[in-house]
Amino acid sequence: MNYGRRLGYKIMTNTYHYLCQEKLIKTRDISLITIVPISHALTYQAGQFVEILLRSGHCLLLSIANAPQTDGHIEFHLRHDEAHPIAKLFLNELEQDANVVLRGPFGESTLEQNIQSQEELVFLAGGTGFAPIKALLQLALVNSQQPLLLYWGIRRPEDAYDEPLLQQWKTRYPRFDYTLVLSEPHQHPSWTAPTGFVHDYVAQKHPDMKALCLFASGPFEMIQAAQRLFTHQGLKTHRFISDMLPKTIKTI
């Protein structure tokens, strides 16, 4: 997920140096970036994000798309269309120099801080907001026993760029399931899965949300709409977990 400057955060001094190991083009405007530490690796929790310090002087907030790994590598899901010029600039800089400087971690949308054993876990993703959700699911599939439900809102079928992984998880972990929801079905008449806004679909599937814990990541407008809707259906305010909501970002 590419975060904008909508969120305030505390100035930090912990800076880390990485190298870009792989750039994988998934669609015409979505790429997966993998970076590896040059020396010290960032210590973080699944669900957090970092600030990329570009050589141009710009900053880009990116969610980490993988749970912590022993080799310290970090994966990003980068949307680089015309609406995300800083992301495009980041890609251009990587073409010239593979060095990546980042600060972090930021964010509080982690399983360690929020999960309760009796709650049903629901994950809501919009577009590349799937990135931190993927990291959370990697951890939850191994460390929790609750049913795990993912709802991923996409504009085009190809935007479900990691669906092969989801299919693998569904086969390996019977308590995991996912649903893709297409928001622009008129352009894709052969689409047979659910359509519309993903948060509306989640509300239809879960009319009573009192016993849910819901993690959400995606466009700010979607997160706002989802929070309002889900609150009316009984979801406790502190169980709607998203770092896209305005708050002071702290490090862990």
UniProtKB/TrEMBL annotation:
<dbReference type="InterPro" id="IPR017927">
    <property type="entry name" value="FAD-bd_FR_type"/>
</dbReference>
<protein>
    <submittedName>
        <fullName>CDP-6-deoxy-L-threo-D-glycero-4-hexulose-3-dehydrase reductase</fullName>
        <ecNumber>1.17.1.-</ecNumber>
    </submittedName>
</protein>
<dbReference type="GO" id="GO:0008218">
    <property type="term" value="P:bioluminescence"/>
</dbReference>
<dbReference type="InterPro" id="IPR017938">
    <property type="entry name" value="Riboflavin_synthase-like_b-brl"/>
</dbReference>
<dbReference type="InterPro" id="IPR050415">
    <property type="entry name" value="MRET"/>
</dbReference>
<keyword id="KW-0560">Oxidoreductase</keyword>
<feature type="domain" description="FAD-binding FR-type">
    <location>
        <begin position="4"/>
        <end position="112"/>
    </location>
</feature>
<dbReference type="GO" id="GO:0016491">
    <property type="term" value="F:oxidoreductase activity"/>
</dbReference>
<comment type="similarity">
    <text>Belongs to the Fre/LuxG FAD/NAD(P) flavoprotein oxidoreductase family.</text>
</comment>
<dbReference type="InterPro" id="IPR001433">
    <property type="entry name" value="OxRdtase_FAD/NAD-bd"/>
</dbReference>
<dbReference type="InterPro" id="IPR039261">
    <property type="entry name" value="FNR_nucleotide-bd"/>
</dbReference>
<dbReference type="Pfam" id="PF00175">
    <property type="entry name" value="NAD_binding_1"/>
</dbReference>
<keyword id="KW-0455">Luminescence</keyword>
<dbReference type="InterPro" id="IPR001709">
    <property type="entry name" value="Flavoprot_Pyr_Nucl_cyt_Rdtase"/>
</dbReference>
